[in-house]
């Protein structure tokens, strides 16, 4: 086991177990497609508000109603079941499925506190329905080890909040993930304020995998210093669905079809994307309009053409880049104009878009321009759909699109060095976005870390809470 806090420590490969485990799962993601265009527009407009902590101070009232409707008494703890209406239903009416409007949680409180009355909010990872998994693997051990309470919030689209037409954990639409994120940010604010009003201290947030992303988003919105422990997550979800092993589970056929047939995605929704989204998608298009065609286009057997990538350095200087889509091993073939090699790469490289050197603020993308709108060949539409996926995912999940947490020294990130689910290559690191945060790396991949390293997740929680108490002993 490696517990590395050096920012230079990075993955040396991907876990075979991660790849094998994913192949055992046959369900497809996003079988319904992108989601309603009007829903995407509403989500992106709301993201511009919720991404700015100052704009959100009055979104959730201090006395937002929370109800405890059941209490169970156990030998070492009490388990309270609670409910409240998600604030997202008030702020963006109708965006949540009716089953998800009522937020549900379990509050697991030790009968004997060891020191203060600390509470950690745990958000659910992919497939973590109801409360049993987090209660058994994290909350109950935390009571025994540290006398720490846990509050387990059920994600929208999971457990009691799962829509009737959703298959297991497979979100039906891409937009569902963004709705989930917006809801969890607001719902976490409700719970943090409720816990504070009830006299609990200190308060923190954690989550594993998708739960780590969601906990990170929630903390960007909290106006006070707070411990944050995201486990097995990183700076954006775009790489998860375009280059990670989960990209193979995405229903690209439906996404490509919808993107090809509905011009609203390319003509309207793209204009709503900020920072990573707009930069990554529009950069290739802008470059394509401004550079002489014979220098920028490679004809692929007629009909469809591809523009060479561009990227922007941290200082803002735009440069022409080699096509980074195919990775280091394929650039020579591009430069030599080897069309057969290029087409072979298109078929074999999957969705490897994230191969840009670290430190670049905008992600490179490949933007295809169709010369015949009736001719939507698979390579063309697949790459455009991937570019669009990167744009919309970065818009709503990239941490650089949200406020920096008040005190980044209270953040301890736990990552797996060989994580095939959460690619870190070619995306901004959390250390770059949140200077001062600590990153701990574990040997192995995503699945092995989840199955066998929960104790390291819990230790990171204890360390972050201790750090908070030492730094802010009087902050209540």
TrEMBL record:
<protein>
    <submittedName>
        <fullName>Abhydrolase domain containing 18</fullName>
    </submittedName>
</protein>
<dbReference type="Pfam" id="PF09752">
    <property type="entry name" value="ABHD18"/>
</dbReference>
<dbReference type="InterPro" id="IPR029058">
    <property type="entry name" value="AB_hydrolase_fold"/>
</dbReference>
<dbReference type="InterPro" id="IPR019149">
    <property type="entry name" value="ABHD18"/>
</dbReference>
